[in-house]
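Usage

Read records sequentially. Each one opens with the input sequence:
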Amino acid sequence: MLDPIEQFHLQKLFTIGHIGNQEIAFTNSSAYMVGTLALISLLMIGSGRSLVPGRLQSIAEISYEFVATTVRANAGKDGMKFFPLVFSIFMLLTVSNLVGTIPYNFTISSHIIVTAALAFLVFFTVLIYGFYKNGLKFLKLFVPSGIPIFILPLVVFIEIFSFFLRPISHSVRLFANMLAGHIALTVFASFIPVLAGLGIAGYFGAVLPLGMVIALSALEILVAFLQAYVFTILTVIYINDAIHPGH
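and closes with the structure output:
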């Protein structure tokens, strides 16, 4: 049986240096991040700027316009100043998630530290820019209009509590979906060699888990894009709160 957790293990490739007694290592996760950056750079820079776009240039232009449309639709024209951040997050997650669907590859978003780092980057961007642009008026985000005065304190408490929970829900949603999908895929795949080793009857029995693996692989490709999009659109919605804090 395959170990469904083994695919998420961090492996040190070499040591970069030390800070005190703490070793700074370059791991397989770091390597896949660098590889993802290289693929994105190849797509966005190496695809060219022809009047008649080729396949790579078409993908680059569609990706750009898709994210730009999402930002304009959810945060308005003022939100376009955050387009580089939003586009970078979308491309990083989309490409790394798709790379992770290839067998024996590593999925960086299956580690909570990666998704949490991105979520807290978004959270502090919203918090800092919200106060920078609006001053204390940013606190209007926690005071919805039209609420009866006798339940206003409770509503304000819920709004503040939910605001500080954003990084948790933002990061765990992506991490949990990628982790669960890859574990399910590995579990079903591990049944194939076990059943095939039982003889003729086992070969017929292995057809079911093989079909599940094929179906789950197709689903994982969809989930890879969908989770990147969900993380991105939530990022845009949170940024819109910093730009327009009033309910």
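Summary fields computed downstream for this record:
- The chain has a mean pLDDT of 88.
- Residues 88 and 127 are 20 Å apart (CA to CA).
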